[in-house]
Design brief:
heterotrimer, A alpha+beta, B alpha/beta, C alpha/beta, A: alpha+beta, 4-stranded antiparallel β-sheet, 11 helices, 12 strands, C: alpha/beta, 2 domains, 5-stranded mixed β-sheet, 5 strands, globular, iron (chain C), iron-sulfur (chain C), iron-sulfur cluster binding (chain C), metal-binding (chain C)
Chain lengths: ~325, ~280, ~290
């Protein structure tokens, strides 16, 4: 691992703003009165000036899947002779650097890859192109909150899964861990060797951060046995509003709608928690109750996806718990199932 | 196939046949010659047909892959996309087709067996694909019995095929309607009742059933009573489908994507689904 | 106060006057409050009442309209019960309202931290229903009656925006509404958004595009505000649940102000009255008819 002075690194980041382009967490809360200052709203945004980039935050509201699977992708077309001309390329050829994503978000991208870019028969070409053109530079997490449970989901606040490079905030420097070739190409020449002592201190730091995470999720639990328990699933989903916040803010949820409107084909976010998600045109709705929909959500994340792809469809980022209007806690739901 | 999995290939409508007051059959040919000549599929698979700008919906292929150069879909008017299909399309228009998707019937495994086709209303569409495939390879299969039911004589589909099927070797066609009219001379009654009268033999036989849920609900026990094993009773499941290739999540039943792992399932598999369908 | 509340609820359930009572309990994290559905008298011990009880529970009444339900409400919440009765969505005979006297609850952040001394929610600063206007059982807060509850001008922020130029206002709302992700949490949490098929979800015909755009966000938020005009009771839940922090209360409050000025109407106060837009009177303003 290498170590670099913070101001030096920030100077390099400034260069990235113009070339090739930088996306990083920014606080976009628009304060109308000074009393609203506390309403932080941290999202990933294309950076215009280096002062926008945040140094200290928990996590963004919207996850990084926003860039690879945007809320809506529009393919437009026009009539041409006998047929139609489709606007195929929605991805421009430019490279981008996404900086500041947490290891939980980075891990979610590896899960999405399994569905969208690693499926050779039905590869989402736009998604794959974007993945190729993007360099993911993560920022290790040093102050998790009570909703975080990444340590139960096979990663840690310093995890490198899905990242091209990981930056660790260390005293007044940044320690750089380049993971892939893309990461090495971007950052390999920076800084100087950290040395064994610092490597050890980083390890100790990682362990101390892991200890801060109190919430656990027992993913080895056999959910199957609770499937039939109407009482349990009614109880946990009683307060659910079927509102969609958990699905839209989840970094690994990927269900979508494919629909046609005049001169457009649209691929947009959708989620199994919505009432009409499984509704058929005959009027039948196989998951007409909140109980059925919530059970399906939990089972998809903690059973079905794992059976198909080997990993749970959850990274423990805690957004669903933090932002759920009625504070439904998915980790507790799994633990008590 | 299109490079982008979300965008369709284009097809011209060669012929529209009015089957019943709310069902039309569309005969389509791909605009692109190489796609038209090389497009192949299995009976029981489906395509996503789109009226560009209006909507897209899944329809099983009613044509048989043994007959190349065109595909056929039979479409019932039900929602936004099918309304657009019925009201806006004319012969010569261009539509989008994505597919073929789904697992299809295991035709190879059915070879050597007797086949019992049980259809209700438009459920005959995917069965027609399999039926014509077997008739085009007649000697590979045993006795074929077709039981086709509908609410009234007007709701029967593919009437122009009945004579051919009736005349095929070792093949019998039985028609039944729930409510007859003066012109009707065949059986009257629901499909399970007709089945009991016909008494098909279950030895070395596979039953393929497709129709409205209520028909299946009452026909299934009759088949079991006649001695058919659940693994020898095959059907196609219906669910809301959008992408067709197992990603959008709409058609999930438990951990299974009906569009990708189905829509053809046998009853031994369906009994294992914990989630109701 | 909590003891009295638990006793009353226990009595209601024991006497089988209701099938279920909806109230608040403590979440697993020991900080937040969560909605609590009680069917048995023994479960009443878990009921809580404090400044973290920010939710408007009346949202759940719509799905239970055929059952006899007890509901624990603050003054702001019960106004939506009044509206639901006015609009024939629930029958008064089926609902037993347990009203709580309330001096104010935390804002969203405060509720999450459970911290004492946090600011009251913005809506509480202009509250005039510290005692619920409708109740079957009242749980009094003896301490509250002694506090001096200053009521701020509830339209202060609205006037600030009104005084801006159209360009400044448009700019402000462009910035705010560009954040909208159409998650529809605002609609789902609102007790008065109960349309079986929301206009945004209709496919035949399709009114809203499925794609995300600034125009679409403007359309959605303004249509929702207009559908709530004369009905919204400013419980503030929509703004609380919005994950993107859009100041939705401002939009609804602007229409609330218009309705007050034009028709002298306040929603959710009198259960006998008809909803505003289902009636007309000869004195209704007609300046727009020339």
């Amino acid at each position: 691992m290498k170590i670099i002075n913070k101001s030096e690194f920030l100077g390099l980041m400034e260069k990235w703003i113009s070339s090739p382009g930088l996306i990083a967490p920014v606080n976009v809360a628009q304060t109308f009165r000074s009393a609203d200052k506390e309403k932080n709203l941290i999202v990933f945004k294309k950076i215009e000036t280096k002062d926008e980039v945040l140094a200290d935050y928990l996590n963004t509201v919207k996850p990084v899947k926003d860039f690879f699977l945007p809320p809506s992708t529009v393919f437009d077309y026009e009539r041409k002779d006998e047929g139609y001309n489709f606007n195929l390329s929605e991805v421009d050829g430019k490279e981008t650097i996404i900086f500041g994503l947490r290891p939980c978000d980075a891990k979610s991208i590896t899960l999405l890859d399994k569905v969208f870019s690693e499926d050779s028969e039905y590869k989402d070409s736009n998604y794959a192109k974007k993945r190729e053109k993007t360099v993911l530079v993560g920022l290790a997490c040093t102050s998790p909150d009570i909703a975080c449970f990444c340590t139960s989901m096979g990663i840690s606040p310093f995890s490198i899964a899905g990242l091209d490079a990981l930056i660790i905030n260390f005293k007044d420097s940044y320690v750089i861990n380049t993971v892939t070739d893309k990461g090495k190409n971007l950052l390999g020449s920076l800084g100087k060797e950290a040395g064994r002592e610092i490597d050890e201190e980083i390890k100790t730091l990682e362990e101390s951060v892991k200890l801060k995470i109190k919430k656990t999720c027992n993913t080895s639990k056999n959910l199957e046995s609770s499937f039939e328990s109407e009482e349990y699933w009614t109880k946990v989903s009683n307060s659910c509003l079927s509102c969609g916040v958990c699905t839209f803010l989840c970094p690994s949820c990927y269900c979508f709608d494919l629909s046609d409107e005049s001169a457009k084909r649209i691929r947009c976010w959708n989620g199994c928690v919505f009432l009409r998600f499984a509704l058929m045109s005959s009027g039948e709705n196989p998951r007409a109750t909140k109980k059925l929909r919530y059970r399906h959500r939990v089972f998809h994340k903690f059973k079905y996806f794992r059976e198909k792809f080997g990993e749970n469809l959850c990274v423990g980022c805690g957004r669903c718990i933090r932002h759920c209007p009625v504070k439904i806690d998915i980790a507790e739901v799994v633990n008590n199932a | 196939m299109h490079e982008n999995i979300y965008l369709p290939n284009l097809c011209k409508i060669e012929k529209i046949t009015d089957e019943t007051p709310d069902v039309k059959t569309f005969k389509l040919a791909f605009l692109d010659e190489s796609v038209r000549n090389n497009f192949t599929y299995k009976p029981g698979q489906f395509v996503e047909l789109s009226v560009l700008g209006e909507g897209e919906a899944p329809f099983c292929l009613a044509s048989s892959p043994t007959r190349r150069g065109f595909i056929e879909c039979s479409i019932k008017k039900m929602g936004k996309a099918t309304q657009a299909i019925h009201d806006l399309l004319e012969e010569g228009d261009v539509v989008g087709i994505r597919g073929p998707y789904g697992n299809g019937f295991s035709v190879e495994e059915m070879k050597g067996n007797d086949l019992l086709f049980i259809a209700g209303g438009i459920g005959l569409a995917p069965l027609r694909s399999l039926l014509n495939t077997t008739l085009d390879n007649r000697t590979d299969f045993g006795k074929i019995t077709i039981v086709n039911g509908a609410r009234t004589p007007k709701d029967l589909v593919y009437k122009y095929e009945y004579e051919t099927w009736q005349k095929a070797k070792n093949t019998s066609l039985h028609l039944t309607v729930d409510c007859a009219d003066e012109s009707w001379s065949c059986m009257v009654g629901v499909v399970p009742k007709a089945l009991k009268e016909i008494k098909p033999c279950c030895d070395n036989a596979v039953a393929i059933i497709c129709g409205p849920p209520i028909m299946i609900k009452f026909t299934l026990p009759v088949l079991i009573e006649m001695g058919f094993r659940p693994e020898d009773i095959v059907t196609t499941l219906e669910r809301k489908m959008q992408c067709g290739f197992g990603k959008c999540g709409h058609c999930m039943v438990g951990g299974i994507y009906v569009c990708k792992d189905g829509p053809v399932f046998n009853y031994a598999q369906i009994e294992k689904f914990k989630e109701e369908f | 106060m909590i003891k009295k509340l638990q006793e009353e609820v226990k009595k209601l359930l024991a006497e089988k006057k209701v099938n279920m009572v909806i109230g608040y309990a403590r979440a697993g994290d020991a900080i937040n409050a969560i909605p609590y559905f009680i069917a048995n008298p023994e479960e009443c011990g878990a009921l809580i009442w404090d400044k973290t009880c920010i939710y408007n529970l009346t949202n759940y009444l719509i799905d239970m309209r055929n059952k006899k339900v007890g509901i624990i409400v603050k003054g702001c919440d019960v106004r939506s019960v009044v509206c639901l009765i006015q609009e024939n969505q629930i029958k008064k005979e089926n609902v037993i309202v347990i009203g709580l006297q309330c001096a104010g609850v935390f804002d969203k952040k405060g509720a999450e931290l459970g911290a004492v001394g946090r600011e009251r929610a913005a809506k509480c600063k202009s509250c005039n229903v510290h005692t619920p206007p409708l109740f079957d059982i009242l749980i009094e807060d003896k301490e509250m009656n002694q506090k001096v509850l200053q009521q701020e001008d509830s339209y202060k922020e609205i006037r600030e925006i009104e005084n801006k130029s159209p360009e400044e206002r448009f700019d402000y709302w462009k910035k705010e509404l560009s954040k909208c992700i159409k998650c529809y949490a605002c609609r789902q949490v609102c007790p008065l958004c109960y349309c079986p098929v929301c206009v945004a979800d209709q496919t035949m015909p399709q009114w809203f595009s499925r794609s995300l755009s600034l125009e679409g966000n403007f359309a959605w938020n303004t249509v929702r505000a207009f559908h709530l005009a004369g009905r919204c009771i400013d419980c503030g839940e929509c703004e609380r649940v919005c994950p993107m922090g859009i100041p939705l209360r401002k939009i609804n409050k602007k229409l609330e102000k218009e309705v007050k000025e034009l028709f002298g109407h306040e929603s959710g106060v009198d259960a006998e009255k008809k909803p505003l837009f289902s009636t007309f009177s000869k004195d209704d303003p007609e300046e727009f008819i020339k």
